[in-house]
């Protein structure tokens, strides 16, 4: 059963331009993404053609400066685009969020020469990026990463393994965090590595319970040599760059989560109002009506939370705590809403004939990526009560 396009959401957009932008996104969704989403996800097809079209349409660099090919859009608008894409197909929505994450280091910490050389192709020239922080033995404890970058004249030689890399093996460029100094966060630097660099190989994609169209793979760096002109920021600044990117990236995950939850609610309402039992629609029964009401309330609350955090970011105000809250709440809400959607559809919800089972499987990963929700709780608590004592 092919997916339906997400129902229009009543959005409070800041400009007429942003309204036109959302209309463009919905047109692309309805024509190019939704009709093949279920089939391609089942087949594990990576929709590179969707990302190429989004790039051609100016939708891969929305929150970045137009000077280098970006869209000059506030995060408030960019995140609502992500929500629409996530509702249509999470592989695409999350992929755009990851690409934006990969561009963050260069756009925020790169030199003018680096930005002029690389950003136009990344923001609107068809290139697709990926972000390489996690490793097999350092996930939540990212500051303990072991991938090394050793100085050799004017070059750096990178050796090690990165894990859980979205777009691993298909990306054109990778923002890579590697150890250039001593132990801990202060010994890490950031690099922009081309996808075709000699010595860079990808393992077979992980076999996942959801998002089968989005390759997630280990990357092996076997003496990958790059010039110092591909080091982003100062030596030892990499971990601070990574954390800065993750604050913004967590808002992208929150928006995608709301999109998945909205798609699940739309499907549940459609089914409940059309399914007859005991001579009337099952939506007439109070148990289901209350379930639908709770689902809708979680979605509205999540949307309000991520937009409030985005507006802080757009105003240049601190938003790290609010980003963690948005990621935590929205992804937990998505897990609950998608699970409830399966329950509303009953036995049909457990079959691949309806998309809600896919939404439930996809929602799970959103509680894990870009900092598990347990890590988000730690971040929030530190803002409230200070660092943990040892």
Can you give keywords for this protein?
alpha+beta, four-stranded mixed beta sheet, four-stranded antiparallel beta sheet, 51% helix, 390 residues
Brief synopsis:
Helices cover 51% and strands 14% of the residues.
Quaternary structure of the protein: single chain
Number of helix segments? 10
Alpha-beta content class: alpha+beta
Overall pLDDT, averaged? 96
User: What gap, in angstroms, lies between the N and C termini?
Assistant: 54 Å
Strand order, largest beta sheet: 1-4-5-8
Name the overall outline.
Answer: globular
Number of strands: 10
The share of residues in helices is 40-55%
- Sketch the major β-sheet: 4 strands, mixed
What's the order of the H and E elements?
Answer: HHHHHEEEEEEEEHEEHHHH
Give unreliable regions as ranges.
none
Rg calc: 21 Å
Tell me what portion of residues adopts beta-strand conformation: 5-15%
